[in-house]
Amino acid sequence: MAHRLLSPANKFSARFAFICTLSLSCTYLCYSVLFCRSTVMTNQGYEGKRCPPKNHAGAKKLLGKLEVCASLGVRTALDESAVRRGTADLREPASSGSHWAATRLTNVSTAQKYGNKKLPNALIVGVKKGGTRAVLEFIRIHPDVRALGTEPHFFDRNYERGLDWYRGLMPRTLDSQITLEKTPSYFVTREAPRRISSMSHETKLIVVVRNPVTRAISDYTQTLTKKPDIPTFEELAFKNRSLGLVDTSWNAIRIGMYILHLENWLQYFRLSQIHFVSGERLITDPAGEMSRVQDFLGLKRIISDKHFYFNRTKGFPCLKKPESSSHPRCLGKSKGRTHVQIEQEVIDQLQEFYRPFNIKFYETVGQDFKWD
Ligand SMILES: Nc1ncnc2c1ncn2[C@@H]1O[C@H](COP(=O)(O)OS(=O)(=O)O)[C@@H](OP(=O)(O)O)[C@H]1O
């Protein structure tokens, strides 16, 4: 009805307006298809802005799902919470002007996008309070290493869950990258060597060892922070102190009898498959110890002196802070605690107790750790 009422002049203007709108729409459509898709959709800056800030409450969950965010090098929720639950405050560099950090970033993001979850090729199996977290956090700055931040306890507590479950926990890696995890209790778990060798005979094993007396005191100090009412160190360490009878059933003592545990490992692995890191040298010369770890893992030596500095407040080496990051670069408060004070006489008695075990251990591994 309406258009019947329009005059011929009005009809002409309506048609003209319709044709103009149509041709403008077509032009816009062609332009979008030809140009916009290739620029806007792959623009990293733009996509980067779409990624939620990773310290936002809901963002951590979401980041794990947003492949594009992961591919931009933003750590996934799993990685973040893994590091926190693993008690480490050390964060790997988010970015840096230096070449190694850039390579690492590229490898991490490529692995997250194209990599596969694989069973670990290498394990840090012990020892508790030896410096295992430091080794894991230092080695994972290598671009060819991807490590699980938490301790999965697969070969001791979770073995029934099966290898598929275990593999599912691992970070994605490229074929050229090593998958690594650390669980210090493996070293003293009777079934661990057999179980690990049945996963693969070729698994490389790293053991961080430390003077067993200092290790025991460190272990006790940690227990005390959780259970302040436990007996004194001396009460737990000796069955009869005046007779010098040490209580070897106390875990803090038993773990330090390294040779006994090692013999179990040597039933399943060649000595050349096991690398021993000195917990003491890891503090005085982290780069030197990490060079040997890189050699053992068949990695190019990338981690060196230039990655470390000695933090006087903490009293330990820390990783240098990349220019663009404000993250703390030292291990968390639970690493490098002030130990409870133990009488020198008790220390001497325990040194005496451990001596024969230490000597046998040095002979077996072919290295003197100088604890005596
Ligand atoms: N760079 C650096 N920073 C901080 N701490 C360092 C470092 N290198 C080695 N260590 C020593 O690591 C000890 C903790 O060992 P672990 O990480 O194996 O402990 S745990 O078994 O995972 O709980 C921890 O033991 P305590 O000093 O007794 O706290 C440290 O002595």
UniProtKB/TrEMBL annotation:
<feature type="binding site">
    <location>
        <begin position="129"/>
        <end position="133"/>
    </location>
    <ligand>
        <name>3'-phosphoadenylyl sulfate</name>
    </ligand>
</feature>
<feature type="binding site">
    <location>
        <position position="210"/>
    </location>
    <ligand>
        <name>3'-phosphoadenylyl sulfate</name>
    </ligand>
</feature>
<dbReference type="InterPro" id="IPR000863">
    <property type="entry name" value="Sulfotransferase_dom"/>
</dbReference>
<dbReference type="InterPro" id="IPR027417">
    <property type="entry name" value="P-loop_NTPase"/>
</dbReference>
<keyword id="KW-0472">Membrane</keyword>
<dbReference type="GO" id="GO:0008467">
    <property type="term" value="F:[heparan sulfate]-glucosamine 3-sulfotransferase activity"/>
</dbReference>
<keyword id="KW-0325">Glycoprotein</keyword>
<feature type="active site" description="For sulfotransferase activity">
    <location>
        <position position="129"/>
    </location>
</feature>
<feature type="binding site">
    <location>
        <begin position="335"/>
        <end position="339"/>
    </location>
    <ligand>
        <name>3'-phosphoadenylyl sulfate</name>
    </ligand>
</feature>
<keyword id="KW-1133">Transmembrane helix</keyword>
<keyword id="KW-0735">Signal-anchor</keyword>
<protein>
    <recommendedName>
        <fullName>Sulfotransferase</fullName>
        <ecNumber>2.8.2.-</ecNumber>
    </recommendedName>
</protein>
<feature type="binding site">
    <location>
        <position position="218"/>
    </location>
    <ligand>
        <name>3'-phosphoadenylyl sulfate</name>
    </ligand>
</feature>
<keyword id="KW-0812">Transmembrane</keyword>
<keyword id="KW-0333">Golgi apparatus</keyword>
<feature type="transmembrane region" description="Helical">
    <location>
        <begin position="12"/>
        <end position="34"/>
    </location>
</feature>
<feature type="disulfide bond">
    <location>
        <begin position="318"/>
        <end position="330"/>
    </location>
</feature>
<dbReference type="InterPro" id="IPR037359">
    <property type="entry name" value="NST/OST"/>
</dbReference>
<comment type="similarity">
    <text>Belongs to the sulfotransferase 1 family.</text>
</comment>
<dbReference type="GO" id="GO:0000139">
    <property type="term" value="C:Golgi membrane"/>
</dbReference>
<keyword id="KW-0808">Transferase</keyword>
<feature type="domain" description="Sulfotransferase">
    <location>
        <begin position="121"/>
        <end position="355"/>
    </location>
</feature>
<keyword id="KW-1015">Disulfide bond</keyword>
<dbReference type="Pfam" id="PF00685">
    <property type="entry name" value="Sulfotransfer_1"/>
</dbReference>
